[in-house]
Amino acid sequence: MKIGLQTWGSEGDVNPFIALAAGLVRAGHEVKLYITEVSERDYTAIAKHHGFELINVPNPILPGVDMLAKMGDAFKAIRDPSEQLKIINQYFLFPAETVMFDAAKELCASSDLVIRHIFCYPTQLAAELAHVPVATLYPVHNIVPNRHQAPFGAVNFGRWAIPLWWKIAQWMINRIFLKQINRLRVANHQKPNQDVLTQAWSNDELNLIAVSSAICPPAIPWPSTFRVCGFLNPSALSEERTLEKDVAIFLNHPQAPVYFTFGSMLVPNEVSWYSVYEIWRETVKNLGCRAIFQLPADDLSLFPSDPNILIIKRAPHHLVFPQCSAVIHHGGAGTTQSSLLAGCPSIVVAHIADQPFWANELKRLGVSPGFMRKSEMSTRRLTKLLSRIFSNSNYREKAIQISQAMKNENGIRSAIEELINFANKKDQNI
User: Fold this and answer.
1) Taking the CB of residue 426, how many other CB atoms lie within 10 A of it?
2) Class at the top of the CATH hierarchy for domain 242-407
């Protein structure tokens, strides 16, 4: 079968699609993956290794370094997720609409089945025009209105308030996205959507939630068109089994380190890196622990050396996290699930959008003592929360329990089974 995938966003939005594309190739399908990545990373080597065709669809207008730094400051000051979504849409999503739609039409013309990221509304439209079955992939389990879980950003007033919060969330999201989505639909002679959450971001046939069932609250009655397939973990298909020499040596020590990473949230600005480094370093000094700092600087010699700290640009999480005492991270879907799969307690320093939600999920699951927003990050707060993890073994015990449950799942296989069953049913109805 010829299967096309299209995604938009940061590394955390791309990795589940890479995992799924690679799994589909192993299952014998011909696969194309179209990517619009906001940091313009190059995934060509990964695609070549796994045997699928990768097409980069670059955003024609991306903010420069100075603007990214200003936006980072704005995100720190803005707590309202809807206001953050406005900025993301204005600078990253809407400017890419035309190129994404052109790419989607090309993808649908050569595919028997298409899978798209929830934000890829141009893909949904292209599939409708081409009469190709399309499935939606959700990277988080809190974008579906329900009576058991409030939307992220909502204040917990109790169960009675959840339906009201969802109505407010739908109104806010419609105000940001609905007009531009319908402009594209009407221009292509399609019926306008009435709601973004339940029409443009989902579809009425198949929606995959790429989150482990060990994380999703069991009480939520998902609609019949939604399936919790599990974590689409790229490392499950990785053949990488060794670490860089300096990392392996650092880990070969009786005291397991704390791993610090903000993933793709750190903008390419050395001043911002250094301020983060200083807070992290003082935290390590206060606790007398060892640590690995993941920082995206090209010249790591800019940072003062410390025998208790190893500074790296990147490392495979599936090899490092299991050897760490805790993880400090930004709360992205991939990093959060990777820390749980490794059986490692963690603390989130949330930057934007759904990251506070993931932080609260970790606390609900009993693997984290709490979280903070980036604007609140301080040595004192990090020291206090890490001290709780070090002094209470329950956090690690809970993380190990969840890890064991996640290891019994196979999100990639489950997603592929759902997709193939969906495609076969569509063929039978033709």
Assistant:
1) 15
2) alpha beta
Sketch the domain layout of the chain as residue ranges.
2-231+410-429, 242-407
Taking only Cα atoms into account, the Rg of the chain, rounded to an integer number of angstroms, comes to: 21
Query: Can you tell me the distance from the alpha carbon of 331 to that of 139, in angstroms, rounded to the nearest whole number?
Result: 12
Q: CB of 128 within 8 A of CB of 112?
A: no
At 211, list the tokens.
């989150």
> In this structure, is the dihedral angle defined by the CA atoms of residues 97, 103, 109 and 110, taken in order, positive or negative?
negative
Name which CATH class applies to 2-231+410-429.
Answer: alpha beta
Q: Are 352 and 332 in contact (CB under 8 A)?
A: no
Distance of CA 354 to the CA centre of its chain: 9
Q: pTM score > 0.85 for this model?
A: yes
Residue 205 near residue 226 (C-beta atoms within 8 A): no
Q: Residue 55 is encoded by which pair of tokens?
A: 């097409």
Give the C-alpha separation, 62 to 39, whole Å.
9
Nearest CA among 6, 5, 11 for reference residue 332: 11
Q: Say whether 242-407 and 2-231+410-429 share the same fold.
A: yes
pLDDT in tens, 227-241: 999 999 988 777 677
Q: What is the DSSP string of 29-78?
A: -EEEEEEEETT----HHHHHHHT-EEEE---SS---HHHHHHHHHHHHH-
**Which pair of structure tokens corresponds to residue 108?**
């649908």
pLDDT band at 68 (very low <50, low <70, confident <90, very high): low
Q: Are 277 and 293 in contact (CB under 8 A)?
A: yes
What pLDDT, in 10s, does the model give residues 305-364?
A: 889 999 998 889 999 999 999 999 999 999 999 999 999 999 999 988 788 899 999 999
133: tokens are 């079955």
CA distance 190 to 198: 17
